[in-house]
Design brief:
This protein is of the alpha/beta class. It has two domains: 211 residues, Vaccinia Virus protein VP39 (Rossmann fold); 96 residues, 3-Layer(aba) Sandwich (Rossmann fold). 32% of the residues lie in helices and 23% in strands. The strands form three sheets. It has a seven-stranded mixed beta sheet. The radius of gyration is 21 Å and the shape is globular. It starts with 5 loop residues before the first strand and ends with a strand. Bound molecules: S-adenosylmethionine (SAM), thymidine-5'-phosphate and zinc ion. The site of S-adenosylmethionine has 21 residues, from loops. One of its GO terms (molecular function) is methyltransferase activity. Pfam families: Methyltransf_13, Methyltransf_14, Methyltransf_23. Keywords: Methyltransferase, Transferase.
Length: 422
Amino acid sequence: MTHPHCYGGSTVPNEPVAVTCKVCGGHVHEFLDLGRQPLSDAFREPESVAPEFFFRLAVGRCESCTMVQLTESVPREKMFHEDYPYHSSGSAVMRAHFATVARRFLDTELAVPDPFIVEMGCNDGVMLATINQAGVRHLGFEPSNGVAEAARAQGIRVRTAFFEEETAARVRAQEGPAQVIYAANTMCHIPYPESIFRGVDALLAPDGVFVFEDPYLGDLVAKTSFDQIYDEHFFLFSGHSVRAMAEHYGFQLVDVDRLAVHGGEVRYTLARAGARVPSAAVAGLLAEEDASGLSDLTTLRRFGDSVLRVRDDLVALLRRLRAEGSLVVAYGATAKSATVTNFCGIGPELVSYVCDSTPAKQHRITPGKHIPVRPPTAFRDPYPDYALLFAWNHADEIMAKEEEFRRRGGQWISYVPDVRVL
Ligand code: SAM
Ligand code: TMP
Ligand code: ZN
């Protein structure tokens, strides 16, 4: 059955639609419907009257390969374009994280004569900056030209293009094979893995590695962090589903690392089938997932029930605080928060404004619910009574920066893993 994309005020059907897996073609069983949602990074001019794009955000699990995925994908050009507002370098913790990733590659896979590394979704160059400083040959693929320009301004080589079969093959022909193809928080954004793997196959050196890190389904379920589900996060990976995807395309999962960043991620290392011996960590992660029943529909349905509980608790708390006359604002106009505000029905009547350090988001309004976005200076003038932490994955960094808020009696509100005033 085809499913219409919806614009403006039109409604969307709530019936699950028959969907096939973007990896293996198996049947995708829907387990959670998060309703009508806008583009998570489409921050609007307050005076804009242009119709807003909406789609139905629902998530399901493939009955064959276990891949958890959205049941509807948004055209990629609607999400990734000149004005894509997310700048990876906005967090000091993430800058340090990616410098470590780069140094690790320099010390291992790239410690060969004339090494070459390709990154998909290099954004403003947060990882490639260290590679470039080391004088190592590199190329970033970044379709969002605004952030690509920020990388180029530092001397990083970036192609404004989507990584896919054709673009990757062209690079192979022009520049030779890459020892490393890397992607952070990008593979899960891509609902066309077949083209990606063909591109990787064309461009990767025979003994090269394809490494990607993305939010981990295990953390999502453990923390009820349903806000990791939005238009850009098409796939929610697990060790099992990534192993199945790798094998489907002639690759092998040879290593995994649990990462604390962005609320819990896994870094997956893939090599051509038979090229490397898988580490013990792979078997360890798979065994852990088997023991917890991570990929079982009952587990995923239970997760769905927890999501409804968090929604109800959060809305009840915000209504009570408002009724008491408290000033409640939010911190971090994250893409994730689009799911929270639109699914829970939280607008400016409950949260007066959101403070965010990203200039491209400031003085705009949030997608769907139209909450004003203000710079962090607005957070201090006046300090609110409560601050809802939308950027909960950057909690330590933000709370340290805004210590004075607490000293003056302000309180943070978190909804991960459950709703609480901190
Ligand atoms: N790697 C950075 C990080 O981890 O902070 C940026 C992540 S950002 C959430 C995802 C990026 O992937 C965006 O900058 C987007 O433009 C880019 N992107 C989306 N599809 C892509 C594709 N097919 N090839 C290369 N980049 C892509
Ligand atoms: P992310 O969770 O997708 O990385 O988005 C984090 C958002 O929070 C991004 O819009 C930048 C914003 N932010 C701040 O406003 N202040 C900060 O200190 C940090 C780390 C992020
Ligand atoms: Zn599948």
